[in-house]
């Protein structure tokens, strides 16, 4: 009989770290976070500066290649991305295979995984040129795929990309144009959309990025790896929190009901948590939430809906929670998802589109981390250990004797 404890003793030292709270899975030069100080840097540049002074495709270049582009490099990169926004016409049939009211995240997991079947010429991970083409294809086609998943879920015809528009405007138009009425993109809303993309572009080894890296460590093709990332992002503890947060704010409805929800969040017998609050790494404030809050104010002012009841509830909830000793003691602050939903809602997106928008924005982070991982000469297949607590070895018992 095998003595499991003896086996562990022989196995030498290994760490038991549920949720990987103190285990680094890789080294990386892409993103730096100081959770205590509320700092987030991409390739050394603070997120606040990038969100306000740069724009999404420039940040994509920075994440992918390590430096800010020159004007010529940026133009070349933007042209390349723009040229790849179309998806293969045959993929339209793939969308149509889904149930008519499928959640857009469900469709995206399937369609992005299926890109490996449509773009064979960029699935060889050992070929640097193919890796490059796959990266550009993913970043370029994700808005088209997300918009198509949305259009399909509401029973409207697909809108093709228009390559004279910038990345964010093109996405807004593909979501909101209908055959009878061309959507006029408001540049301020396009800027706010671009800022949401920038604020979500990368966030080092979060759950979905770690999933992409783990999937890729076996040598899986890039589209399959990114589909795995999208699946992981969907959960309400991660990217799905933006949808859950807005739904919670609507359920609260009016500021006078806030204390009831605060009490529920503190009750350990109630599984309810304040959505949009707390973060594994940020224990002071989430620097993305700060910019997002400013953006929410701008967008609602532009649309003339500053008195939006959801925003009023959000602001009051933030104030009450920050003054509550429970949240202070546990260092729970609003995260990036707390205000993004309010902006997206004001733009006209249904809550089911919040997480797909996060996924399209995070694609560049996943792709950058995937490329970095493949360039690592020390790359090993990811294979966590476990602490086995099950039965010791025993003999099979015939069914009549059980
Ligand atoms: N509401 C109430 N209590 C909370 C909340 C919350 N939102 N978040 C954490 N806590 C409490 C926990 O109950 C726990 O209490 P305990 O020590 O008495 O057991 C303590 O704070 C620590 O929480 P953990 O879950 O251990 O922290 P962890 O780092 O594992 O989780 C997470 C972080 C998942 C983000 C969590 O704060 C949460 O569920 N928040 C709500 C969902 C959300 O907004 N997710 C978005 C994250 S940001 C993003 O993905 C872009």
Automatic annotation (TrEMBL):
Stored Pfam families: Citrate_synt
Origin: domain of life: Bacteria
Involved pathway(s): Carbohydrate metabolism; tricarboxylic acid cycle; isocitrate from oxaloacetate: step 1/2
Molecular function GO terms recorded: citrate synthase activity
UniProt keyword annotations, A-Z: Acyltransferase, Transferase, Tricarboxylic acid cycle
InterPro entries per the UniProt record, alphabetical: Citrate_synth-like_lrg_a-sub, Citrate_synth-like_sm_a-sub, Citrate_synthase, Citrate_synthase_AS, Citrate_synthase_bac-typ, Citrate_synthase_sf, Citrate_synthase_typ-I
Gene3D superfamilies in the record: 2.20.28.60, Citrate Synthase, domain 1 (1.10.580.10), Cytochrome P450-Terp, domain 2 (1.10.230.10)
Active site residues of this protein: 279, 337
SUPFAM superfamilies per UniProt: Citrate synthase
Record PROSITE patterns: CITRATE_SYNTHASE
Gene Ontology BP, a term: tricarboxylic acid cycle
GO CC aspect terms: cytoplasm
Catalytic activity: oxaloacetate + acetyl-CoA + H2O = citrate + CoA + H(+)
Family label: Belongs to the citrate synthase family.
Protein name, UniProt field: Citrate synthase
Organism field: Limimaricola soesokkakensis
Record lineage: Bacteria, Pseudomonadati, Pseudomonadota, Alphaproteobacteria, Rhodobacterales
Gene transcribed to yield this protein: gltA
């Amino acid at each position: 009989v095998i003595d499991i404890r003896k086996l562990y003793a022989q196995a030498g030292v290994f760490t038991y770290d549920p949720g990987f709270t103190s285990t680094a899975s890789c080294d990386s030069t892409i993103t730096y976070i100081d959770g205590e100080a509320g700092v987030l840097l991409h390739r050394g540049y603070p997120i606040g500066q990038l969100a306000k002074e740069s724009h999404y495709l420039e940040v994509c270049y920075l994440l992918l290649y390590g430096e800010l582009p020159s004007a010529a490099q940026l133009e070349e990169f933007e042209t390349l991305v723009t040229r790849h926004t179309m998806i293969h016409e045959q993929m339209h049939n793939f969308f149509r295979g889904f149930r008519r009211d499928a959640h857009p995240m469900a469709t995206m997991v399937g369609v992005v995984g299926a890109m490996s079947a449509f773009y064979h010429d960029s699935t060889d991970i050992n070929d640097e040129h193919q890796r490059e083409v796959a990266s550009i294809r993913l970043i370029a086609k994700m808005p088209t795929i997300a918009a198509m998943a949305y259009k399909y879920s509401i029973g409207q015809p697909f809108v093709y990309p228009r390559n004279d528009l910038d990345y964010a405007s093109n996405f807004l138009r593909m979501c909101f144009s209908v055959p009878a009425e061309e959507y006029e993109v408001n540049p301020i809303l396009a800027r706010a959309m671009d800022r949401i993309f920038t604020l979500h572009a990368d966030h080092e080894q979060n759950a979905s990025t770690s999933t992409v890296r783990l999937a890729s460590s076996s040598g899986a093709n890039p589209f399959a790896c990114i589909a795995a990332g999208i699946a992981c992002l969907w959960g309400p503890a991660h990217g799905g929190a933006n949808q859950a947060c807005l739904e919670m704010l609507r359920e609260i409805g009016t500021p006078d009901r806030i204390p009831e929800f605060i009490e529920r969040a503190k009750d350990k017998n109630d599984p309810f948590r304040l959505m949009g609050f707390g973060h594994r790494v940020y224990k002071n404030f989430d620097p993305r939430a700060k910019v997002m809050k400013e953006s929410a104010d701008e967008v609602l002012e532009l649309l003339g809906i500053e008195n939006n009841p959801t925003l009023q509830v959000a602001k009051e909830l933030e104030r009450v929670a920050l003054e509550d000793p429970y949240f202070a003691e546990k260092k729970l602050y609003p995260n990036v998802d707390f205000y993004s939903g309010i902006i997206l809602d004001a733009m006209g997106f249904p809550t089911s589109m919040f997480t797909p928008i996060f996924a399209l924005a995070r694609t560049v982070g996943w792709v950058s981390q995937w490329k970095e991982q493949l360039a690592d000469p020390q790359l090993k297949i990811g294979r966590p250990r476990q602490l086995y607590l099950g039965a010791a070895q025993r003999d099979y018992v015939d069914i009549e004797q059980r």
